[in-house]
Design brief:
about 150 residues; mainly beta; 6-stranded mixed sheet; 4-stranded parallel sheet
């Protein structure tokens, strides 16, 4: 783990994860084994003249992982991106765009294949725009590609 990384409460970071500053991990985040959070939007070792770049030659950008989100084994988050609350990034996925709350993301580049609950269970569609967690019974409403938890 690099310097100046913010780690919230109850975060679980597995072996060989690489987390570079200025990454931020919210409360309850899970980072799987070998996951990588990058910090350079334009990686180069030298400038256009061939002169080696030092620390003043670039500006670090971070990956922000919001509350309860999970990053699968060997996933890569290419900064700058925000992983939404309770989202699930599958093993080996390469995230290059912001991830919505509760999204299930897989592939390279990562794409949304469904929605997941706080319990980590794939949501089941009930009717147009309505979703339910089969484990907890929590209900969600999808509006314009954004998932909202319904009040209990």
């Amino acid at each position: 783990m690099d310097r100046s990384v913010y780690i919230g409460h109850n975060v679980k970071i597995q072996n060989y994860a690489l987390i570079y500053h200025p990454a931020e991990l919210g409360d309850g985040v899970f980072v799987g084994p070998g996951a990588v959070l990058t910090n350079d939007a334009y990686p180069r070792a030298v400038d256009p003249t061939g002169t080696p770049l030092d620390a003043s030659g670039w500006t670090p950008v971070g990956v922000t992982v919001l509350e309860g989100a999970s990053l699968g084994a060997q996933s890569v988050c290419v900064a700058p991106v925000v992983i939404g609350r309770w989202a699930l990034v599958g093993a080996g996925a390469v995230v290059v765009r912001d991830v919505p709350d509760f999204a299930i993301m897989v592939g390279n580049p990562a794409r949304r294949i469904g929605w997941v609950s706080r319990a980590g269970v794939r949501l089941q569609a009930e009717d147009a725009g309505s979703w339910r967690c089969p484990r907890t019974g929590a209900r969600f409403r999808e509006l314009d590609g954004v998932l909202h938890e319904e009040e209990v």
